[in-house]
Design brief:
six-stranded antiparallel beta barrel, Rossmann fold, alpha+beta
Length: 635
């Protein structure tokens, strides 16, 4: 059955809370101060059953201008609004501000409730209704019914209930397939149960026993129990008011404005790319880097507005902006937000999130505006392609792409398969994850890699190729090891590069020694072969050669080719000597459990210096393991 949230809106003392009591029989003012002053200061919550059998949750918001931020924390997730206007006062400042907020948040359905109708004459009621129609023109409730009520005398209450019931049939069905998301509007402690949070579940479904995460702090918590409308449930669904009993966390670690959601489903950020519009009646314009108050979900955040396409945003205008926040927040693309002036605190506009985790934008860049326009249109295939074009160099998994774009997994899968067939992206499967790359990025790194290797071969003609680690850092932006490996294999298949054990070269590249270099190579190999387990000191030996620079070039090539094994900066063994030393040690361990330096020295017939250097190298390679003054085979 469809889950419905109804919210009130309207000026202070226009009878919102009294109306809810008439509808439900329940009191929503819960604070001592609220009861004493007779006004709602914070949010109130209750529910009631409609004639059709549907159970609707109700959010009662405060009407006083001082408590607009509390009102904003309650209107997220509302399906139907009851705009309450007192017949004896008509449209008042907070009526208009609440209406503006609801319009900016794109609430779809509403009913206008003319309260206290028993206190005025019919002629006055008709005048007020005319004023109301004028006030709501060009808003989402311009054609909404006006229901006259008296909550005290129970006039019109039944008619209102029937209108609400009928309107619920038109409410768009919620999506329970997305990862769950619950902006928190209350947090408290119940003795014997611990920490409880409440909010409207705006996406997905949540189950008892689920592991969840609090954002933006990214603290992991467990869902102990759930309540919906004062009843324990095993599972709650989008569109329901939910109370969640959490384990492993204290009340003081949670605040209104935090979000409870699936683990790793959201990305904390201090920037949001948005399209915003200023109200026509806004008393202020927005200049670049204007400090404002931003309301998203149940949170209030301070931030600055960076105008991307103009110097000043005037009342009635809309534009693309980057919001630079002063504290971390979480959002998803197409989330709505409200903007209030920093001081005085008045609502001046609102907008929609286009990129929930953007990079820092430069102003007046056509490509930036085009990207945001594309996101605004909401074509998920084009949005995915544009996202990959911009962020392929961040090596994001499918899960991270979903988190950043807000596109559902089903849509993502369908779109990336189409794009792969069209040869516009590549998909790499690594372990149990998929990584997506725009073909432009692949072409770019391919060209950069070829240029880099071409220059490398010219500079170091005696080296087989550049090291894989060097390529990973300089060309692949320090990509994670397995991703770098798969990307390089993909590029190798294109036929322009060759991958060796530790190096990468251009396809077809071979090292060619000149006649003089061949002579030098023979001298080096002979000297280090003869040295066996007592090889020459590199620095001393090279300095003793007449053309030491040429000798050093060939020497480095021998290391690259694996002919010489680097043990330390000064000690190098010929590969045959190194392998022989390793075999001798292996044979020794077949008959002995351990070996010390002196024994190993005598085994090779070398000096203590070389014995220690070799053993330490074997330790590094995990062939041996040092235990105090002895070595054992590392099994």
């Amino acid at each position: 059955m469809q889950n419905i949230i109804i919210g009130t809106a309207g000026h202070i003392d226009h009878g919102k809370t009294t109306l809810i009591k008439a509808l439900t029989g329940k009191e929503t003012d819960r604070l001592k101060e609220e009861k004493e002053r007779g006004i709602s200061i914070d949010l109130g919550f209750t529910y009631f059953d409609l004639p059709s059998g549907r159970r609707a949750g109700i959010v009662d918001v405060p009407g006083h201008e001082k408590f607009i931020k509390n009102m904003l924390a309650g209107v997220g997730g509302i399906d139907i609004v009851l705009l309450v206007i007192a017949a004896d006062e008509g449209v008042m400042p907070q009526t208009q501000e609440h209406l503006n907020i609801l319009n900016l948040l794109e609430v779809k359905k509403g009913i206008i409730v003319l309260s206290k109708c028993d206190m005025v004459e019919e002629e006055w009621l008709q005048m007020v209704e005319e004023d109301v129609r004028e006030a709501v023109s060009n808003t989402f409730i311009e054609n909404a019914p006006i229901i006259r009520v008296s909550s005290i005398k129970n006039i019109g209450i039944q008619e209102l209930i029937e209108k609400i019931d009928k309107l619920t049939l038109q409410v768009e069905k919620k999506d329970n397939t997305k990862p769950f998301r619950l902006p928190i509007d209350r947090v408290f402690t119940i003795k014997g149960f611990g920490t409880v949070i409440t909010g409207t579940l705006i996406e997905g479904s949540i189950k008892e026993g689920d592991m969840a995460m609090l954002y933006p702090s990214e603290q992991e918590v467990k869902v102990r129990t759930l309540q919906v409308h004062d009843e324990n449930v095993k599972q709650a669904y989008a569109g329901q008011r939910v109370a969640v009993n959490l384990s492993n966390i204290k009340k003081e670690q949670i605040s209104r404005g935090d979000v409870l959601a699936c683990k790793n489903s959201l990305q904390p950020t201090m920037m949001l790319d948005c399209k915003i519009q200023l109200l026509k009646e806004s008393p202020f314009s927005i200049r670049n880097r204007e400090r404002v108050r931003i309301y998203i979900g149940t949170s209030e955040i301070l931030g600055r507005v960076v105008l991307l396409d103009r110097e000043e945003l005037l009342p009635g205008q809309e534009g693309y902006v980057q919001l630079r926040l002063e504290t971390n927040s979480v959002a998803k693309p197409m989330d709505h937000l409200i903007i209030r002036f920093y001081s005085p605190m008045v609502t001046i506009g609102g907008g929609v999130v286009l990129d929930a985790y953007p990079q820092k934008r430069k102003r007046f860049k056509d490509e930036v505006i085009q990207q945001l326009q594309l996101r605004e249109k909401g074509d998920t295939k084009k949005v995915l392609l544009q996202f990959l074009k911009e962020y392929s160099n961040q090596y994001l998994s499918l899960n991270e792409i979903q988190k950043r774009t807000g596109i559902s997994y089903q849509e993502l899968e369908k779109n990336y398969e189409n794009l792969q067939e069209e040869n516009r992206i590549i998909v790499l499967s690594i372990s149990d994850k998929k990584y997506l790359f725009h073909m432009n990025y692949i072409k770019d790194i391919d060209e950069k890699l070829q240029a880099y290797l071409n220059k490398f071969h010219q500079t170091y003609p005696l080296k087989k190729g550049a090291s894989k680690e060097e390529i990973r850092n300089k060309i692949l932006n320090a990509a994670p090891g397995k991703i770098a490996e798969q990307l390089l294999k993909f590029l190798e298949k294109k036929g322009k590069i060759s991958i060796h054990q530790e190096t990468i070269s251009l396809r077809g590249f071979t090292v060619e020694l000149s006649r003089e270099q061949k002579q030098i190579a023979n001298v080096i190999e002979k000297s280090f072969k003869q040295g066996k387990f007592n090889p020459p000191n590199k620095k001393v030996w090279l300095n003793n050669q007449e053309n030491s620079k040429e000798y050093e070039q060939v020497f480095e090539a021998f290391i690259d080719w694996g002919i010489l094994v680097k043990i330390t900066e000064e000690i190098y063994f010929h590969k045959d000597s190194y392998e022989l030393a390793k075999r001798k040690l292996q044979n020794y361990f077949q008959e002995h459990k351990e070996i010390d330096v002196a024994t190993f020295r005598d085994l090779l017939g070398t000096s203590r210096k070389y014995a220690i250097a070799l053993l330490e190298y074997f330790d590094q390679k995990k062939f041996t393991k040092r235990i105090r003054d002895i070595r054992v085979l590392n099994e």
